[in-house]
Amino acid sequence: MSDIRFVPAVLKLHLEALHENNSENFRREYTALSEYEEDAIGQWLKIARARGETRDTDEVLLNLLVELHKKVDELTALVKNEEKKLLTLAHTTEILEIGFEHIRIEDPLFDKGREYYGRIEMPIFPKREMALYLKGIEPYVAEIILMHEKDMKDWNAYVVAKERAMIRELKKGKKNG
Fold first, then answer.
1. C-alpha to C-alpha distance for 94 and 96, rounded to whole angstroms
2. Are 136 and 166 in contact (CB under 8 A)?
3. Is this prediction's pTM over 0.85?
4. Distance (Å, rounded) from C-alpha 130 to C-alpha 70?
5. What is the DSSP letter of 125?
6. Dist CA 127 CA 121 (whole Å)
7. CB within 8 Å of 94: residues ≥ 6 apart
8. Of the candidates 37, 38, 30, 36, which has an alpha carbon nearest to the alpha carbon of residue 147?
9. How far, CA to CA in Å, does 167 sit from each of 7, 11, 171?
10. 92: exposed, middle or buried (C-beta count within 10 Å: 0-12, 13-18, 19+)?
11. How many helices (H) and strands (E) does the chain have?
């Protein structure tokens, strides 16, 4: 276990062990949370980018405008009582440390070798929940065994950002100490 490199992070994890009764529901939600099951504006933007129609557009401004449109869609759905519900999972815990392929949690919820479905609330832009599958290594540590490609890129970028923040804090501590 000592060969896993962790950095501190504070994230919320919702999870439940896989078994025959729930695996199909988890698979459906995992697919629904994928980058391929985006809303209409997301699909339109992908097609426009593929055609080169956004070539002369400011990407940052375009992304902000798309996210604003999504927020309006979310508020409209909320007003119409059409809010998309996620599955209620058996456990909620805090993630204390993260690595590129592993997480360490606050509570001893993992059984060695057992697989779990989970969602992590990510504090990134756009804010969203990432669906993933985990495999228990020890009661507090699990390996990430499946995550959507776009989510994996965002996860890796988040881990790198946390590593950089930790290094800055260590350097600052040495200067002050």
1. 6
2. no
3. no
4. 17
5. S
6. 8
7. 10, 11, 12, 13, 105, 106, 107
8. 30
9. 10, 20, 6
10. middle
11. 4, 6
Residue at token pair 């509570």: 107
Alpha-helix residue ranges (DSSP H) falling in the chain: 23-32, 40-51, 59-79, 149-176
Residue whose tokens read 């996210």? 67
The CATH architecture to which 7-37+86-176 belongs is Beta Barrel (2.40)
Q: What is the pLDDT along the chain (177 residues), one digit of tens a residue?
A: 568 899 999 999 999 999 988 899 999 999 888 755 456 777 777 788 888 888 888 888 888 887 788 778 777 767 887 767 889 999 999 999 999 999 999 999 999 999 999 999 998 877 788 999 999 999 999 999 999 998 999 999 999 999 998 888 888 877 776
Alpha carbon distances (Å) from 127 to 19, 31, 73, 123, 151: 29, 18, 15, 6, 12
What are the tokens at 63? 């992304």
